[in-house]
Amino acid sequence: MNQHFFKAKISSKKIINAELCLIRLSVDGWKGHIPGQYVEICLTAQNDYKAYRPYSIASKPNNKYIEILIERIPEGEVSTYFYDISDIGDELLVSKPLGQFFILPIIDKDVILIAGGSGIAPFMSMIKNRYSNKKFQLTLFHWSKNFSGLVDYDVLIKQNEKRNYYPYITQEIPDKWSKGTGRINIKAFEKLNKNLYHKIFICGSDTFVENVNGIIKETFPHREILNERFGDV
Amino acid sequence: MVTRGFFGKGNDDLDKKRLPPGQYLENRFPVLSAEPTPDINLLDWKLSFSYNNEIMAEIDWNSLNKIKSTELTKDIHCVTRWTKFDMNWRGVSVQNIIKSLDLEVPSDWVMIGASTGYTTNLPTEDLLREFTLIAYEYEKKPITPEHGGPIRLLVPHLYFWKSAKWVSSISFIDEDKPGFWENYGYHMYGDPWKEQRYS
Ligand SMILES: Cc1cc2nc3c(=O)[nH]c(=O)nc-3n(C[C@H](O)[C@H](O)[C@H](O)COP(=O)(O)OP(=O)(O)OC[C@H]3O[C@@H](n4cnc5c(N)ncnc54)[C@H](O)[C@@H]3O)c2cc1C
What's domain B43-194's superfamily in CATH? Predict the structure, then answer.
């Protein structure tokens, strides 16, 4: 193996809803990351069988820990370990931060972030990293099946004075919900100033990313569009 | 170091010799691309061969379709760690295209280009291997757009990012240069058996 892995320990685990959990890993010798990057997680069984999967880093850059947002895939080898079994103190391996394309190192221009479900993970890191520089806008669209899947809703709504958070619920719509509903649709982007944004980041399942690409191409024909695909549904 | 509580799905009945190091077996066909899928009409598709910014030859679908095709079934390995066994493809080997165009190979390296602007580098030797195809069928059906259709490159012995989707140009170059992912830190060659993921 030509890749370096850091030793890591689960230091907290938060169950968000029936599908999502947020895991914090304290990583020995960690040196931080660029928002948008992911790590490869390596789990080792007693017989030395190893499973590797990539997960986006959801936390703000720092040199102690990372957080990953895990969506439980039924019968998924690694995601069910994290959601169902993992506990504080469990040890695993974490690669150095990877990916040098789907990243937002400094924010000096307005960008749009479009997330489907757990695809919000890399954007959580970008948004948390932004607080020091409020001159430029990150506009986040998040499509989720249900309200509980709108991770960080309370925080994001509070900071929404500039109208830069657009939550959408597609299935289990709460009674008093006054924000977006329904699947991704061209109408969602109608109110935006098309000339403002220089990059558009899209993240989620393959199907979600593919759908958004189709819509976005027409709405923002000359913008740079970056994709991160988590897998198939 | 063992991860408490993790047993893995075992993969016990799996032919482990077929899995390169660090890969796991995937039954579906995940999509890996950095940009939106383009919409390309087969009849508008063209592949150019060039050297020193000069086009040496071009081939379109009609002429490609007249060259003897190859069908092959190969295990495909993606740098994001999935391996899919027995993927069935049909296409024309680059070897045969070059023969039929009567081209002389001018250099040891190529830069592959796609209509999206995507690029990836290869040694000419690997481009001319028997199983490097300009592919147009997957599992006996036209390749769908998100998987690089109507026509993509297939370099089955290297990590899958080398198999450029929507391939449109092959430029011979005198010295090896990084393409799109190679510029973002991926390995210049990408042999899955040597686990050449990142440089
Ligand atoms: C760059 C990158 C970043 C990623 N970041 C995240 C992240 O932040 N959070 C996260 O939860 N996941 C993320 N993923 C997906 C993750 O790597 C795993 O693929 C996912 O957790 C499933 O792994 P598993 O071992 O549980 O399932 P497996 O045992 O590998 O798969 C079980 C079945 O589920 C299918 N499957 C795989 N992924 C998905 C999916 N996303 N949705 C539906 N079906 C799927 C597989 O094709 C397979 O048939 C990312 C993927 C990539 C490539």
Answer: Oxidoreductase, molybdopterin-binding domain (3.90.420.10)
